[in-house]
Amino acid sequence: MLHTSSVLEITASLPKSPVSNIHHVTTEDDICASLALLKIVHQCNQKQGWTLLIAPDNVPNKAMMDSCSIDTNKLLVIRRKHIVDLKYVLSSALNNGNFAAVIAWTDILSSTELTDMNLPCSDTEIFCFSQAKQPEKCTMSAFIS
User: Fold this and answer.
1) How are strands ordered across the β-sheet holding 50-55?
2) What is the pTM of this model?
3) Which of 3, 47, 78, 84 is least surrounded by Cβ atoms within 10 Å, i.e. has the fewest?
4) Given this structure, which CATH class describes domain 15-134?
């Protein structure tokens, strides 16, 4: 069972892009990404406004969010497959004024794509998840000797 005390510790050292409120979150795997997502959503849940999460079908896990005391009534999840124009959705969320944060899950939006969009400045925090490239530990040459 996941203890909320370990999830609720928010580090203030999230790397912040020089452009407005963009945070690039790099994780090693899906488990680390899910834990980082819980931390970020819990942090944003304390602010006034909605949190927009652009994610694939299996994210987020509602049971895990409920166990971490995250108010899912303030979380708006849009599946990536339902978005035709991602830049329009992001711009609309930033201009709306009712969002505390916008979170783009791993492999939905890269850091360079986000920077190239030239999104409007806003008080809304933007979190862009990406997965760290891990060196391949098992190669075919290791099996052929």
Assistant:
1) 22-27, 125-131, 99-104, 50-55, 75-79
2) 0.74
3) 84
4) alpha beta
